[in-house]
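Everyone, describe these C-alpha cells:
***
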Amino acid sequence: MKQIISSLYALLESTKVLDFLAPLCLRLYLVPVFWMAGTKKLDSFDSTVEWFGNPDWGLGLPFPFVMALLATWTEILGALALLFGFGTRLLAVPLMFTMIVAATTVHLEFGWQAIADPGAPYANERVMESADKLQRAKSILRENGNYDWLTSSGSFVVLNNGIEFAATYFIMLLALFFMGAGRYFSVDYWVKEKMLNNIIEQQGR
C-alpha cells in the first residue's frame, strides 16, 4: 500500500513540468471576456458614462466619466496584459476591483445565478418564479411561432443576471495574482529569467 501511495505521489509530482498550463489557460480564458467588455464600453462611451452616472436606470456612481474611463481602459489594457502575460500579478488587482464593483453595483440584487435555474441550490424567489414564466413563453412560441427554428441555435433561458460570472472571474484573477502568469508563455517569466541571469552573472564576477 505504501509503495502504491509513493508511486501515485511520484506520478503527481511528475506533472509539475506542465504547471505552466494552468495560468496560461486562465489568462487565455479571461482575455476575450475583458476585451469584449472594455471595447464594448469604448464603442459607446457616451452611453457608458450616462449608465454609470444615472441613478434612475443606471448605476448612479459618482464621477461617472472618470469611473467609466477607468473601467473601460482597465478591461482593455488588462486583456492585453493577460494575453502577453505582462505585469499579470499587478494588473490582476484593478481587474479584481472592477469585478467587485460590477458584482456589487450591477448583479448583487439578483442573487447568485447568472442564468435562472430553479433546480440549483442557490435559487432565490426571483429564479423560482422564472420557471413558470419560461414555460409560458415557450408555450406562446410553440402556438404562434416556428419553435423549431427559434430554438435551432439553442434553448431559451431566463437571464437572472446574478453575481455568478463576476465572482468566477474574480476567483480566476485571484489565482493569477498568487501564481503569476506562468512559465514560458509570458513576458513576466522571461523578464524574471533575464533579471535572475544578470544577478547570477554579477555574483559570479
Remarks:
- The CA atoms of residues 53 and 60 lie 4 Å apart.
- The mean pLDDT is 93.
